[in-house]
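Good morning,

Both structures are done.
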Amino acid sequence: GFVPALELDDGQVLTQSLAIIEYLDETHPNPPLLPKEPKARARVRGLAQIVACDSHPLIVPRVREYLAHEFKVDEAGVQKWAQHWHKAALTGLEQHLSTEKDTGTYCQGEQITMADICLASQVAGAAFFKVDLAPFPTVARIAAAHAGQTVVAVSHADPIKAAVAWAGGVPLDLFQRFVVSPCSVSAVALSPAGANILCVNSTASLSELALS
């Protein structure tokens, strides 16, 4: 199967980013990652899905590797492909966030939500794929507001890998070889100045990590 995956204490394995995030929100509700009001919840889910459903599936390593191996697309071509779909998601986010009244300091008012987690990973990916954030000022402003906050990705290879690449300038070929293990926890504190890798492939629980 594919990552992300979260193995529970009873051995059951949950898959897919947003399903895992919602499970963690329901089992560890403080602070909440989804608003209580139904319309606000739907808006947060919609923003998150721009990244998780519209953009991310098109730029994951298996897609980029398929383009390179099956269609003989060179590295510049693969990069152009990734940039196109990355910009498409950033454009969608910017259109919503810059025009909708529910946007605040963060994607949904003054509380970090699931949408902010997805936005943070998109911004980290933008740095890796060399996508300029200047045309997306609202996205950039919200990303800047995340500075000092901890964004947790559970066994989710690309956001963690993108953050490592951002922090260390890892070239694409080495990026492909970097492995983020399933059933582990990785955490990154993201800010416009860079990425602080807090842990990668940790077997500790979220409560044991005591992230703040």
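Second structure follows.
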Amino acid sequence: MSRVLQISGISVHTVKGSNHIVITGFMASGKTSVARALAPRLNMSMIDLDEVVFQRAQRSIAEIIAQYGEEYFRLLETSVLEQTLGDKNPNVVALGGGTWVENRNCKLITLRGCTTVWLDVPFELCWQRIKEAGPGARPLARNYHQTFKLYVERQPAYAQAMIRIGGDHHKTASELANEIAERYKDDR
């Protein structure tokens, strides 16, 4: 079975049944925690894309952006994503908050036939987690209004994911992982 997505006005056919599950959503939505909980349920490995970028660059994302700029970071992120999706073993991949929003990444993920999951969490919960992480932990979250604007701007891109899972203050990463696992198995 295939699915057609509209990406920047271009119809892209996806092929159902890829090994990889890719989790997208806004920064601090819980993608990494949910991916960690989901991977063992599906007997897959878990990859945190931001962590792989950090390992490759030997710098934090904040340091990369400060030193080289966001565009350089996005190009590095795409390179790491391409390498990750080339793995023949099934993986649950936690994307960075802006990864899916980049057209080249969205197309790559789609063309590789990955199952995409949007972890849709209210902005206020994301903002609370961003503040708890401390200043500088999220370099694109400079202040409340700028971060909220980014959240709103990214929603249409996130909504293109195949599966939408709603999160809130009451759902644990384990509960969200169970929901994703059920939906994933139902769709196969």
